[in-house]
Structure formats: C-alpha cells, structure tokens
Amino acid sequence: GAVVSQHPSRVICKSGTSVKIECRSLDFQATTMFWYRQFPKKSLMLMATSNEGSKATYEQGVEKDKFLINHASLTLSTLTVTSAHPEDSSFYICSARASGGRSYNEQFFGPGTRLTVL
Amino acid sequence: GEDVEQSLFLSVREGDSSVINCTYTDSSSTYLYWYKQEPGAGLQLLTYIFSNMDMKQDQRLTVLLNKKDKHLSLRIADTQTGDSAIYFCAERNNQAGTALIFGKGTTLSVSS
C-alpha cells in the first residue's frame, strides 16, 4: 500500500526558532500534498494545498509567511514553521494524493509531527 | 459552506455493535471517508464510499449512506477494545486536488 512518512515525528524547540517538517510519499508520486493541523480534541484543519512545482494555496487565516511550504519534487513537501511561538504547538499531519490510477480516490496520511514550542 | 458534523463520544461494551453517525452539508460531495486515529498517531483510512452507493461492507465494518438526508454511518460489528480510537468522517467533492473536509471526530470507548 501507499506509505507517507513524516520527519521528525516529534520536535521541541525554543520560541523564535524555525522548524522544518518533511512529508514524503515513499512508494508513489504525489502531485498534490496537503498540510493539516490538529488541535487537541479538535478536527483536522486544512492549512494549505501543495502542488509540485508551484506555489502552495493557503487556506483563509493561515499566514503564508509563517508557514512556508515547498513542494520541490513529486515525493517531497516541506512545511517550515518560522519564528515559532507557543501557540504554534500542535500536531501537524500531511497527506498525499496519488497522481492517478487505483488510488485516485484516496489520500494517504503521514503519521504526524508533534511540535512543542517552549 | 461545507460542514461535517459528528457526535463527539460513544461508549460501548466489548462484543456489542458500535454505530457512529455523521452528517454533511455539501451536496456535491462525491466521496465520503471514515478514518481512525489512535492516540498520538496519524490517520488510518478505514473505508470510503462513492456517493452513488447506499452501502459498503468490509469485514466488521458496514458503511451506510443516505444521500437524500446527507447522512453517513459506520457500524463496527463485535467491537473490540482495540477499536477504541477517534473516528473521523470526511468528505470531498470530485474536483481534482481537493482536500478533505473533516468532522470533529467521534471518540469511541470500548469497555471489557
């Protein structure tokens, strides 16, 4: 089956530093990847849609200068939280949508990255 | 706008059936999904149903779709303690590259 990995799985950083989270599709190509944020006991909130080779599309209320997204290849998208603050602490989950074929209907989710900003 | 609603909690005894309900508002939704999330983990796709189907069964899981009422349910037969998790209902329309819209999740607690 299709596998999506995220790295790191858990990160603790000081306020003011930047943190990069990687999302990789391991055995398929993904022209589209999505970044979600999950608050405790809340649903997933879509932050942005990332398309390979083009600029990401951000949802309303998500600061593009704070959450930098790069989708440099068909298997890798990165989310960089710049100048992180404690309110950015959250569980960040990416998903990847296969370019076509049998898995057209499915989004495959990564295991998530727990970010804690002190 | 699009909205997906679920009840927040469900508690059942081991061996009983669990039914988790979901309602959605986007009539253009073409795919509806059920995901499972265990504590501290990512999302696991359980099953999905295309909007022209009424029912889909996969081992202990049965999905029922009432498109007229925009109501989706997930039935877990013979619920086990390992089924304890948060279950998310999600929808998307048929446009390429569209993200999923999630409900807030139903926490299923299974007692032995």
Characterise the protein shown here:
The complex is a heterodimer of chains A (118) and B (112). Chain A has 118 residues and is mostly beta strands. Chain A has strands at residues 4-7, 10-13, 19-25, 32-38, 44-51, 57-58, 67-73, 76-81, 90-97, 107-109, 113-117. In chain A, strands 2, 4, 5, 6, 9, 10 and 11 form a seven-stranded mixed β-sheet that branches. The mean pLDDT of chain A is 89. Chain B has 112 residues and is mainly β. Chain B contains no helices and eleven strands. In chain B, a hairpin with a 5-residue loop joins strand 4 (29-37) and strand 5. At the A-B interface, strand 5, strand 9 and strand 10 of A face strand 5 and strand 10 of B.
Descriptive labels:
heterodimer; A: 118 residues; mainly beta; four-stranded antiparallel β-sheet; 11 strands; 52% strand; B: 112 residues; six-stranded mixed β-sheet; five-stranded antiparallel β-sheet; globular
First-to-last CA distance of chain A: 37 Å
- Mean of residue pLDDT of chain B? 89
Count of helical segments of chain B? 0
Summarize the biggest pleated sheet of chain A: 7 strands, mixed
Mean pLDDT of chain A: 89
Helix proportion of chain B: under 10%
H/E element string of chain B?
EEEEEEEEEEE
Strand content of chain B: over 45%
Task: Count every helix of chain A, treating DSSP H or I runs of 4 or more residues as helices.
Answer: 0
Largest sheet of chain B: 6 strands, mixed
Q: Work out the oligomeric state of the chains in this entry.
A: heterodimer
